[in-house]
Amino acid sequence: MKRIIITGASSGIGKEIALELADETSQFFLVARNMDRLEQVKMEIESKGSSAFIGVGDVSDEHQTKTLFSQAIAEMNGIDLLVANAGVGYFGNLEEMEISKYDDQFNTNVRGVFLWLREAIPVMRKQNSGQIIVTSSNLGLKTSPRASIYSATKHAVQAMVSSLRDELKGTMIKAATINPGSVSTPWFDGRDVDRSKMLTAKDVARAARLIVEQEETSNIDHILIMPGL
Questions:
Q1: How many distinct structural domains can be found in the chain?
Q2: pLDDT, tens only, 55-91
Q3: Active site residue: 42, 110, 150, 223, which one?
Q4: 2-7 and 26-32 as β-strands: parallel, antiparallel, unpaired?
Q5: 47, containing H or E segment
Q6: Could you tell me which residues come within 8 angstroms of residue 205 by beta carbon, excluding any fewer than 6 positions away?
Q7: Does the structure show a pLDDT above 90 at 229?
Q8: Residue 211 CA to chain centroid, in angstroms?
Q9: Is there a contact between 164 and 118 (Cβ–Cβ < 8 Å)?
Q10: How does pLDDT run across 182-208, given as a tens digit for each residue?
Q11: CATH code of the domain covering residue 59
């Protein structure tokens, strides 16, 4: 049985990864800020034969993270996979970026990943097993106009995970990032953009499955996935 924690699980990539991995041998603990949407994902997962628990909270809040993680471990008696997926993004020229949007991006995209990794790694070390997947971006590997702060958060995530991989050498714990280009998710709702040429959340979920199902003889570092159109 795989015991899986997914943050940002109520929609988009997080939801699709959950549905992609849902089967009779999986347990999920789903984290997001919207209870109603989490309940809907939980029902969809359970219809596939998995069991699911939900936790509502802010991934960037230390106390809430500790509480939610403890709840997840109590429910599942361990963790085999952490998908640190929760993220936000605001775009515009650097000098136009509001401090609140700067803080929101760094708190969610960087602090939120750090806090959940800090909780999961000691449990995985005790088990000497586990897989970590962090949803990053192609902008964690390059930069782009009007994405300076978002890109900065994803570069920080790449550095964090890269260093972590070195720290995990000699263990059976693996860490990887998925680095997609633009993905048609609710992120883009209401924005004047052409979503027909974007990746789908299922494209990203299939990349997650590849990481989860890799053999012991491999250790995927990151998967860069870009739109094919």
A1: 1
A2: 999 999 999 999 999 999 999 999 999 999 999 999 9
A3: 150
A4: parallel
A5: helix 35-47
A6: 13, 16, 17, 19, 20, 21
A7: no
A8: 13
A9: no
A10: 998 776 776 777 778 899 999 999 999
A11: 3.40.50.720
| Interatomic CA distance for residues 83 and 116, integer angstroms | 9
Long-range contacts made by residues 45-53, C-beta under 8 angstroms, separation at least 24? 45/18, 45/19, 48/19, 48/22, 48/23, 49/22, 49/23, 49/24, 50/22, 50/23, 50/24, 50/26, 51/26, 51/27, 52/18, 52/27, 52/28, 53/27, 53/28, 53/29
Q: Domain containing 84: what range?
A: 2-225
Give the position of tokens 């000691």: 122
Residue type, 110: V
**Average pLDDT in the 84-112 region?**
97
Residue 90 annotated among the catalytic residues of the structure: no
Length of the chain: 229
- Paired tokens of 130: 């586990």
Does residue 203 contact residue 181 with C-beta atoms inside 8 Å? no
Full-prediction pTM beyond 0.85? yes
CB proximity list for 122: less than 8 A, separation 6 or greater: none
**Residues 18-46 pLDDT 10s:** 999 999 889 999 999 999 999 999 999 99
